[in-house]
Specification:
Strand content: 5-15%
CATH superfamily of one domain: Ribonuclease Inhibitor
CATH topology of one domain: Leucine-rich repeat, LRR (right-handed beta-alpha superhelix)
Radius of gyration: 21 Å
Protein name: Cilia and flagella associated protein 410
Pfam family, one: HIND
Order of helices and strands: EEEHEEHHHHHH
Low-confidence stretches: 112-129, 153-165
Keywords: Leucine-rich repeat, Repeat
């Protein structure tokens, strides 16, 4: 049913959300009191870019930590406007993007089987172009957006570029974020803006604490 917009399936002993991945017009989904075992099932809802209301409470996947649960759901589905009958705020989304746990594809799912054959592809791992594509498209997937084709990354350096893995990852993550900004609408850009401000405040706070600690240490040395 690709055109269905509102679906109420509460109290139905549902175990998997994979059959909903094709309901691209879905805007409201009610799944209270089912048997969904893990938040990894939310990966099947990522393609549903119109989904704004989700009621998932009273499922085993909710666990015992309501804060962790809510932040993880919102990190996976940042477009939601209401979760479990509670309005989602921009600050909450920004916090979820920083502190929510990453939701992975459930083991044994078709999507997971297609993404890997169980062997390590050394050439792909060492290719900065493929590395950048994976970083960008991973973030796009989390936002419910289509992956970018390889030709969008033609300006990147060749695989022979020598760069340490940590610095490579930081550079490519930044490239991925900058590419994503072009595709975000005003509402999504505001979420990114809020998340960036919160992150910068954390760095400022850490810097102030370090400066204060150094000053205290110097004062103590002078007194001695």
């Amino acid at each position: 049913m690709p055109n269905i917009e509102v679906l109420t399936l509460s109290v139905n002993s549902i175990l998997s959300l994979s059959p909903l991945a094709g309901c691209l017009c879905l805007s409201e989904l009610y799944l209270r009191k089912n048997m969904i075992p893990s938040l990894s099932e939310l990966s099947h809802l990522r393609p549903l870019t119109r989904l704004r209301v989700l009621w998932l409470a009273e499922n085993p996947c909710c666990g015992t930590d309501p804060t962790r649960y809510r932040l993880t759901v919102l990190r996976c589905l940042p477009r939601l406007q209401k979760l479990d009958n509670q309005v989602v705020t921009e600050d909450e989304i920004a916090l979820a993007l920083m502190e929510g746990e990453e939701v992975t594809t459930p083991p044994g799912s078709l999507q997971n089987q297609l993404s890997t054959n169980g062997l390590q592809d050394v050439e792909t791992e060492n290719d900065p172009l493929n590395y950048n594509m994976e970083e960008t498209n991973k973030i796009r997937e989390e936002l419910g957006m289509k992956p970018l084709p390889r030709d969008k990354f033609s300006s990147l350096s060749s695989p022979s570029t020598r760069e340490s893995k940590p610095s490579m990852k930081k550079t490519h993550t930044l490239d991925a974020v900058l590419l994503l900004l072009k595709d975000l609408d005003e509402e999504e850009l505001r979420v990114v803006h809020t998340a960036t401000q919160n992150r910068l405040q954390m760095y400022t706070l850490d810097s102030d604490m370090l400066t204060e600690s150094q000053h205290t240490q110097k004062t103590a040395e002078i007194q001695h």
